[in-house]
């Protein structure tokens, strides 16, 4: 593999990792904002909202971790 292709692979891995982190941060930020708003509107449902929010945050982080693993594999394989 020539140097140009290797450089593009590293660039793609870096951009992919950055976009993954930005997307996960935006997703969890919106999730937390919605959870706090729901808790403010109906304090009696705090436990249910928290449980649902934790499950959704775990799913978002799982997808982000999977995408980061793909970026790492792209960088290592190149």
Q: How would you portray this structure in words?
A:
The chain is mainly α. Helix content is 91%, strand content 0%. The chain is built from 2 helices and no strands. It is rod-shaped and about 60 Å long. The mean pLDDT is 91.
Query: Which structural category fits the helices and strands?
Result: mainly alpha
Report Rg: 18 Å
Helix run count: 2
Overall form: rod-shaped
Could you give the count of β-strands? 0
**Biggest beta sheet attributes:** none
Share of residues in helices: over 70%
Distance between the termini: 8 Å
Low-confidence segments, given as residue ranges, are none
Overall mean pLDDT score? 91
Strand content: under 5%
Order of helices and strands: HH
Q: Which secondary structure elements does this structure contain, and how are they paired or packed?
A:
Layout: H1 3-41, H2 46-77
Core attributes:
78 residues; mainly alpha
Brief overview:
With 78 residues, the protein is mostly helical.
């Amino acid at each position: 593999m020539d140097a140009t292709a290797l450089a593009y692979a590293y660039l793609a891995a870096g951009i992919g990792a950055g976009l993954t982190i930005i997307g996960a941060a935006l997703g969890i930020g919106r999730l937390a904002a919605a959870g706090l708003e729901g808790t403010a509107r109906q304090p009696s449902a705090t436990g249910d909202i928290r449980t649902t929010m934790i499950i959704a945050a775990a799913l978002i982080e799982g997808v982000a971790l999977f995408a980061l693993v793909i970026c790492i594999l792209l960088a290592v394989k190149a």
